Amino acid sequence: MSDTLKTAYTSPAAAAPGAINFNAPDLNRHPPRSPRTRLGGYAHLPRLLDKARAVAAGKGGDYHYNCPFDKKFFDYTGIDHEAFMAEVKTGKSDSEILAYVQTKAQPKRDPSEIAGWSQWMEQWTVSSPETRAFFNDVHKKNAAQREDIATWFDWIELDDFVTFGGRP
Question: Using one digit for the tens of pLDDT, what is the confidence trace for 43-53?
Fold first, then answer.
């Protein structure tokens, strides 16, 4: 690839250490990736990256970085959310952030452990009366007729879809 083409495809954030990734998704216009989407076997990681990049660029909309779902990832990997955000702000790609996660995760996990955790995340359900009331209220508001909304990931995907104009 020529130097001209390399320059054209280089992220402006990657060229300037410490810069914000201006290629961040605008979460005022569309939702982050599904929590079911995996990177390096980790469920939720691509969504977490979308939210972190958007929040860093001031395009986070109603999405929150370091929410309870994000905290599950940080607890599992042992990575500090502020250190993770600092890495995201350098403009690293998904692959580069995955390499960071694989280097920093404590304890180290093998692929089968990560797959097991991701499967658990996909099946995670409401565990307390307070969160059940919240879950049910949003579910009822978005699509009371939908009986297939059982897990948090189901709930997130439905909420994203309806929030951005989809019909339940």
Answer: 999 999 999 99
